[in-house]
Write a structure and sequence with these properties.
The chain is mainly α. It has three domains: about 180 residues, no CATH class; about 70 residues; about 180 residues, no CATH class. The protein is about 65% helix and about 0% strand. A two-stranded antiparallel sheet has the order 1-2. The longest helix has about 30 residues. It comes from Austrofundulus limnaeus. One of its GO terms (molecular function) is acyltransferase activity.
Length: about 500
């Protein structure tokens, strides 16, 4: 194990002894260690570099330098790609006209990411399923392209041409190089994100993130109670760290017991009954998901510890720290439809796909959104097989919901029975869809689907052909509803808060 982990590591080998003790690749150990260090720095950043004590310039500098140090520790000289990608895109923003800047910036940023993914996969180490330098570049790509479109909206369009969310997110001046680098490479999000809007990040740096996020709260009250101008993130951070610890224990305990590739083992496929294969596949995917829960929840906790992520108050008066949260675990595990599962998975990526593609693409926005998502994820063939399968699953799930669900709403017992059936169906459909995403290559993915006789593909095709689905006009409100069925992430809470922010901004202006 030791020689392999050292060879595959592109960053520091200082933690190699710990890697050998816990039997994990050193690059993964580096990643977790850097995130824990970032958590400590986040608490220090919030207390000792509070906006009331220091200037935005100092906060930008410290956040950027710490982020670049963590990148260097984890990825070595490969971290230069972060600066190259950011530098090329910033040059496009500066020298290209505002009318076309966002398009060229999108092409350059995404193209550089794809080029790096191709070289990493097909030149260096095909199938290296570990921490790699293109992971942070994926988040930086989201940030750069979002910023380019928001600058285009703020500087080249009239407010009447923008939707409420675009109006709030629009950037009214060109960011300085320091602000740009701080946004892309700050220590809170350099390794695992999540993506956030530029305006929200600048408000956090300048100390405006705790201003009332809703018009009715402008007088300092909410739910009839006075609120502190700066609520503490302590409870939210502790809760998320406990979730991280639980997810890590579950993942380390189960992922070796239920490897996904065993589902295509010849002896297992030949001897195990089909229902056993279904149960095994569900357990294998269930054991795999806590890894993503751990990474995304820890990243969210780091941002919260620094004071970033406040999103108003709940109905009971408790502060919400979910502005940039990336998932909702219980809603994922208890989802009763394909749509609900995707609504609560990788939420910030869904926001990005909606803002830069779905809302703006004049031709087939759904197909374009799936294509962009596949290109952004990488160049493994399994990714594209998953997204193609996902299109069929989404269309079939919508057809079933429109035609069959109303018949089960007559009584509570029927609805409960429908929920149980759809929960089982959703879990099987999700597992079936994402197997190529895990196996990566074409041959094992086709082998898996062949062992299932492409049954769910054929079933989805049959459902789409037989069950009619009402056509939808592409009105702005319906676009937002439609995206929830085709992309990852829940838009509802964010859009409500964004629209309120837009109203508050207009009132202030």
């Amino acid at each position: 194990m030791a020689p392999q982990t050292t060879a595959s590591c592109t960053g520091s080998t200082l933690l190699q002894p710990i890697s050998e003790i816990i039997n994990l690749p050193v690059d993964q150990v580096n990643f977790v260690a850097c995130q824990l260090f970032a958590l400590l720095m986040a608490m220090w950043f919030r207390i000792y570099l509070h906006p009331s004590k220091t200037s935005p310039f100092v906060r930008h500098v410290v956040a950027t330098l710490l982020g670049l140090y963590l990148a260097l520790f984890c990825f070595g000289w490969y971290s230069l790609h972060f600066l190259i990608q950011s530098g090329l895109s910033y040059g496009v923003m500066i020298f290209v006209s505002l009318e076309h800047m966002h398009k060229y910036c999108f092409i350059v940023t995404l193209g550089y990411l794809i080029l790096c993914q191709i070289t990493r996969v097909y030149v260096f180490d095909y199938g290296m399923y570990s921490a790699d330098f293109t992971g942070p570049m994926m988040v930086i790509t989201q940030k750069i392209t979002s910023m380019a479109f928001e600058i285009h909206d703020g500087l080249s369009k009239r407010e009447t041409q923008l939707t409420p969310s675009q109006k709030y997110l629009a950037i009214s001046r060109m960011p300085s190089l320091l602000e740009y680098l701080s946004y892309n490479c700050n220590f809170m999000g350099i390794l695992a994100g999540p993506t956030c809007s530029y305006n929200d990040y600048i408000a956090f740096i300048e100390g405006r993130a705790y201003q009332p996020r809703h018009q009715e709260n402008a007088n300092g009250k909410e739910n009839g109670k006075f609120r502190l101008s700066e609520p503490s993130p302590k409870n939210a951070v502790i809760s998320k760290l406990c979730t991280c610890a639980l997810c890590l224990v579950i993942y380390l305990s189960l992922y070796k017991l239920f490897p996904v590739d065993y589902s295509i083992n010849d002896d297992f496929v030949r001897s195990a009954p089909f229902y056993v294969q279904i149960i095994y596949l569900y357990l294998a995917m269930l054991a795999l998901r806590p890894k993503y829960y751990f990474v995304w929840t820890l990243a969210d906790a780091i941002n919260n510890a620094a004071g970033f992520g406040f999103n108003g108050y709940n109905a009971d008066g408790s502060p919400r720290w979910d502005l940039i949260s990336n998932l909702r675990i219980l809603d994922i595990e208890l989802a009763t439809s394909f749509k609900l599962f995707l609504d609560n998975w990788n939420i910030q990526t869904s926001h990005w796909l909606k803002r830069v593609c779905y809302e703006r693409c004049p031709i087939n926005p759904t197909g374009a959104t799936f294509l962009l998502s596949a290109l952004w994820h990488g160049v493994y063939p399994g990714y594209y097989m998953t997204f193609v399968t996902g299109i069929g699953m989404t269309m079939a799930a919508r057809a079933v919901r429109h035609n069959i669900r109303p018949h089960f709403l007559a009584s509570e017992s029927y609805k409960s029975m429908y929920d149980v059936i759809t929960w089982v169906s959703t879990q099987v459909a999700i597992c079936y869809t994402v197997v190529p995403f895990v196996l990566l290559a074409v041959e094992p993915s086709l082998k898996f689907y062949s062992s299932w006789y492409f049954s769910l593909h054929l079933l989805c095709l049959l459902i789409v052909l037989v069950l009619p689905v009402k056509s939808r006009r592409r009105q702005p409100e319906e676009q937002q509803s439609g995206l929830q069925e085709f992309t990852r992430g829940n838009q509802t809470d964010h859009n409500n808060s964004t629209d309120s922010n837009c109203n508050q901004k207009d009132k202030t202006t």
